[in-house]
Amino acid sequence: MRVETWRSWLDERLGTEAIREFLRRKEVPIHRHTIWYYFGGMTLFLFVVQVVTGALLLLYYRPSAEAAFESVQFIMTEVEFGWLIRSIHSWSANLMIATLFIHMFSAYFMKAYRPPRELTWVSGTLLLVLALAFGFSGYLLPWNKLAFFATKVGTDIAGDVPLIGPFLLRFLRGGEEVTGATLTRFFGFHVAILPGVTTIVLTLHLILVQKHGMSIPPSLEGARVRTMKFFPNFLLRDLIGWVLAIGALAALAAPFPWGLGEKADPFAPAPAGIKPEWYFLFLFQTLRLLPARVGIFEGEVVGVTLFLLGALFWMLVPFLDQPASRGWRSRFFTGLGVFIVLYIAVMTIWGYLA
Amino acid sequence: MRRERRKRRRIPRSRLWGGFALVSLVLGGLGATVARAQQKKDSCLECHAALEGPLADPVTLMKEDIHRARGFSCADCHGGDPTSDDPLAAMDPRKGFVARPPHRAIPALCGRCHSDAEFMKRYHPALRVDQEREYFTSVHGKRLRAGDTRVATCTSCHGAHGIRSVQHPLSPVYPLNVAETCARCHADAEYMAAYRLPHDQYNRYRRSAHARALYDRQDLSAPTCNDCHGNHGAVPPGIASVAHVCGQCHVRQSALFRASPHKAAFDAMQLAECVYCHGNHDVLPPTDEMIGTGEKSVCVSCHPPGDAGYQAAERMRALIDDLSRELERAQAILDRAERAGMEVSRAKFELSEARDALTHARVLIHAFSVKEVENVIRPGLEVARRGYQAGERALAELNYRRKGLAVSLLFLLFLAALLYLKLREIEGPK
């Protein structure tokens, strides 16, 4: 009786009954590709892990060139379970990018971007860009040698963006060089600007997913597809995945705590064989393979321009893949997807081994 | 109206260009004439360049010569008249021509300019002007004065034609080339036999810690022959001055030795201070084995078993070994913890304090005071032990983490199993 009173009190004010009704009616299709539906929820779960562990790290982290390294060292050695929180934050960031890529490519190959889900796809690609920006800005925060030089190389590449490159480079670095000003700036991006923008885009993405429901692959369109209740059947499966994800994070963080390296020294020579994080490796390797000049243009400028155009193309796929939008097979876009996956895999492995 | 008047006054553009070309031609012609007049005639170069073999060599070598670059000509050293095209007039002894200045006259010939402060100021104000005077304080200079013309003079080391600045890497007196330049005579057994001098110094030097620093690490501040023997005033440092020579760089060790009881003892026995234990040309990197009472100890050559010095050497060695061992132990355990993924960089950094103490103690050996060595070793041992404990704590923490991980994974698997059972319950047959 007491619970019922609370429920009706809340329903009167928040309209919870409508949400309950929505959840009761929400269904998830069951077919041989259902497994891919779990990667969106897994990415969201890992993002929540990032928010929680990031907030805990903020209690001790100090964003300045003088204190950043020492504060992370303090977290790793003196703070109770600080090593675990930081290691989980770092491992979870990498797993999140991995599940995000899987989620994106599964949506791509299942043509989930077909009308009316074009904006779900666009918001998803924006979330990928935001996740990469999170990774890039967070990498510098420990202010160690590797992070310092990786940021130097990364911001140099940003400086090659046509027209706005020099401005972008100064904007990112807070000056001509990577200094304490860059660290403070990246900290601001990482804990204020990117979370703010991500919250908006993520909310839009989730609303759109709820509005349009799960997409089924074109090959199953028209066929009788079994379904399961989202609540509790699908959610319970999600929960099992999340519990196992926590286990995987613990199994990575405990025996392989995230290293700290040496404190950044702007006057020291760059360490040999410096490489970015794995998710930027295919971009880096491509730029490395380009000749110094392509025609009258600098090789890196050509590379960066092609990647930017590629990203724009990728974002606009729902509007370009007309056969899929009409319910036909679109072999070109499927082939293109396979080529991109292979390209990323080959370039990443090559970059890693080089 | 006014505009029209201005228009009439204006000179046509074609005429302006013509005037400019004329003025340029006149000025250009004048400039060329002046330049030709300023270029001095040098018949020495003109003729010798046309010759072959050794007579043409000076012309080739002079292209790289620092004097030539400053505007000096052959006649400034050899005399004669370089303005004359007639070889007899150009090389007329009455005009001061000397084909080959005699060996014994070389220092004075170079000194004509290099000992003249007023003159040198115009070309190289920072260069010393006492090289000639200093040269005659050297063994080379003294023997030359006594009539020995086989000894080195200025040109023996610097070259005659093609003299380069000391800072030039190809100069025979550039730090990396000095030992080879000296070795040209001093490593020549036959040449040295006449002076009853050894000829193995160069080979011994090449094995030394100094040579390793100079050649392997390219550390130009590392000593070569002239840093200990002097260059223009080259002499073998005597027993009394050898400590001062080493003390130029090894300041602390030298000061400690001079204040130690060994100083008086070495003086009384007429032993060359540093050299007696460390050697001279083949100074090897010192090892801890040099102190103490072992086979390679230098102490036992004077101190017999049982005497106070013997006991002090034994004790100092024991102290140094203690700290070395503790340091090694701490470093090993911290490395192990680091390899296992533990964050021990602070502990490793703090260990550098113990490493400093060990280096300090090794220097303090030169005071030959057990107490002083002990005062430095004790805090070092304390730091090393703290480092070892930090390593132990890190490994214990690692163990705790592994156990914690196992318990957490079991709990998580149990939770996942419960969720799975709940799912089966929901989806099972009603």
Looking at the structure, what is the overall shape of chain A? globular
Q: Based on the structure, what is the oligomeric state of the protein chains?
A: heterodimer
Tell me the strand percentage band of chain A.
under 5%
Residue-averaged pLDDT of chain A: 94
| Mean pLDDT over the residues of chain B | 88
> DSSP helix count of chain A?
15
- As residue ranges, the low-confidence spans of chain A are none
CATH domain class of one domain in chain B: Mainly Alpha
Largest sheet of chain A: 2 strands, antiparallel
Low-confidence stretches of chain B: 1-12, 18-38
CATH topology title of one domain in chain A: Cytochrome Bc1 Complex, Chain C
Tell me the distance between the termini of chain A.
68 Å
Biggest chain pair interface: A-B, 24 and 22 residues
What is the name of the CATH superfamily of one domain in chain A?
Cytochrome Bc1 Complex, Chain C
Helix count from the secondary structure assignment of chain B = 24
Order of helices and strands of chain A: HHEHHHHHHHEHHEEHHHH
Helix content of chain B: 55-70%
Proportion of residues in helical segments of chain A: 55-70%
Shape of chain B: elongated
- The secondary-structure class of chain A comes to mainly alpha
Structural overview:
- With 354 residues, chain A is mainly alpha-helical.
- Chain A has a domain at 24-267: Cytochrome Bc1 Complex, Chain C.
- Helices cover 68% and strands 3% of the residues of chain A.
- In chain A, the strands form 2 sheets. Chain A has a two-stranded antiparallel sheet. In chain A, strands 3-4 form a two-stranded antiparallel sheet.
- In chain A, β3 (293-294) and β4 (297-298) form a beta hairpin.
- Chain A starts with a helix and ends with a helix.
- By secondary structure, chain B is mainly α.
- Chain B has a domain at 308-427: Butyryl-CoA Dehydrogenase, subunit A, domain 3.
- In chain B, 62% of the residues lie in helices and 0% in strands.
- In chain B, α22 runs antiparallel to α23 (345-364), α22 packs parallel to α24 and α23 (345-364) runs antiparallel to α24 (370-427).
- The longest helix of chain B has 58 residues, at 370-427.
- Chain B starts with a helix and ends with a helix.
- Mean pLDDT of chain B is 88; it is low at 1-12 and 18-38.
- The interface between A and B is medium-sized, with 24 and 22 residues.
